[in-house]
Design a protein that fits this description.
By secondary structure, this protein is an all-beta fold. The protein has helices spanning 16-21, 112-115; strands spanning 12-15, 34-35, 41-50, 53-58, 64-68, 73-76, 85-87, 103-108, 117-126, 129-140, 147-157, 169-172, 178-181, 201-204, 222-224, 230-235, 242-246, 254-257, 297-298, 306-311, 324-328, 334-339, 345-350, 361-366, 372-376, 382-389. Residues 1-36 have low confidence and may be disordered.
């Protein structure tokens, strides 16, 4: 990786207003406004040798699962440097590994200690042809060598033949509901179509896959709609607030606060008046949809391709305790968002330890001990990293 020490000498902070309004002289990003008093970070290599690590799950005994877009599931003996890595035997032969699709999101069931179950989100083929995106529940064998399919939890999420805008991030809400961020499969009518599962955040029962009875529309798993490609879903501790990260087309990545039943304003079909997929429309089209929910943060005239989100928790994090973290693929950095009680973004911090040091970053999850774990997604010798504040 190339060094960035000559151009990033301190943690960068950008005010929320400046993020959308200002850019550097070459137009690539926001202008730094001040230095932050945030802790320096320890970044430890837990393991390398992964290929497009997509998501992370922590098991009760300290072991770690990592899904890889190629279809492989890695089991690590611990979340500490030097962990041994086992590739589980798992029948992922029907996973379509193409473009942005493959084996993606992961959630470990809260009762894993007895059920040994976890659920993944994956692009699926049938008879060799692209079929859909689906949630699949697996069980880890007692000898920890094999993951066997238990059931298909939810099917029918739209899949593009080239894998574009496949989502797909599952996260457990504070009330135990399974929230799933999905992509619109680059089809213009999908985000505003409430009968489609694409371009949505879904809310379902983790055990049955059925819509929860208190969803905005009875009998429907759709929790929010009008999204482009939701790849980050995080629950704010102590509040129940759900924050999502969403890819913009060539500008305006978004951080959104979810409101049940709300429209987030992405409509590349322009109300069905154009065919195809018109990406020149606003991410949140308030002219067409005056009641759409504006983003809490936008990247402005550039994109970072923000991806997974997680919250930092614990007094060890000091001034960034409670901050929202987002990984960036195109931007190849971590972004730390400070939020007020209404989840408005008050500042954005870019730790220099991650300012293009590790390449594209995909997953971010907070472990039970408060450490932050991140994967790289460069395609060769990808890594699982453990991040903690320096004492």
């Amino acid at each position: 990786m190339r060094s960035t020490s000559s151009r990033v000498m301190s943690i960068i902070v950008v005010t929320a207003a400046a993020v959308a309004a200002c850019s550097t002289s070459d137009g690539t990003g926001p202008v730094p406004s001040a230095a932050a008093q945030a802790p320096a970070l320890n970044v430890e290599l837990v393991t390398g040798g992964l290929t497009h690590g997509w998501d992370i799950g922590f098991l009760p005994d300290g072991k770690v699962l990592v899904t890889q877009r190629t279809g492989a599931i890695a089991l690590l003996s611990s979340g500490l440097p030097g962990a041994t890595v086992t590739t589980l035997k798992a029948d992922t032969s029907t996973v379509q590994v193409r473009g942005e699709g493959g084996l993606m999101g992961l959630v470990v069931h809260p009762d894993f200690a007895t059920s040994r179950e976890f659920t993944t989100c994956q692009t699926q083929t049938e008879n060799g042809a692209p079929a859909d995106i689906r949630l699949v529940t697996w069980r880890l064998t007692e000898d920890e060598t094999t993951a066997t399919r238990v059931k298909e939890l939810l099917t029918g999420l739209p899949l593009a033949a080239n894998g574009r805008h496949s989502g797909c991030r599952p996260t457990l809400a504070a009330d135990g509901a399974l929230l799933v961020g999905t992509g619109d499969s680059a089809r213009g009518a999908v985000p505003q179509d409430k009968t489609s599962l694409g371009g949505k955040v879904l809310r379902i029962d983790l055990k049955t896959g059925t819509p929860l009875p208190d969803n905005p529309t009875p009998g429907s798993p759709v929790f929010t709609y009008g999204h482009r490609n939701v790849q980050g879903v995080a629950i704010r501790p102590g509040t129940g607030q759900v924050l999502t990260a969403e890819h913009g087309p060539d500008k305006n990545d978004e951080i959104n606060l979810l409101v049940p039943g709300a429209n987030y304003g992405w409509d590349p079909s322009q109300g069905g008046t154009v065919s195809g997929y018109d990406e020149s429309v606003p991410m949140t089209d308030l002219d067409r949809f005056p009641d759409a929910i504006p983003a809490k943060w936008e990247s402005g005239d550039t994109t970072e391709a923000i991806c997974a989100t997680a919250f930092l928790t614990g007094p060890q994090w000091g001034t960034v305790d409670g901050a929202l973290v987002a990984t960036a693929l195109k931007g190849a950095k971590l972004l730390l968002y400070t939020l007020d009680t209404e989840a408005n973004v008050t500042s954005v911090t870019i730790p220099p330890e991650f300012a293009d040091q590790y390449g594209r970053l995909r997953a971010s999850r907070t472990a039970p001990d408060g450490a932050l774990y991140v994967t790289t997604s460069n395609g060769t010798d990808d890594k699982l990293l453990r991040i903690t504040p320096k004492p």
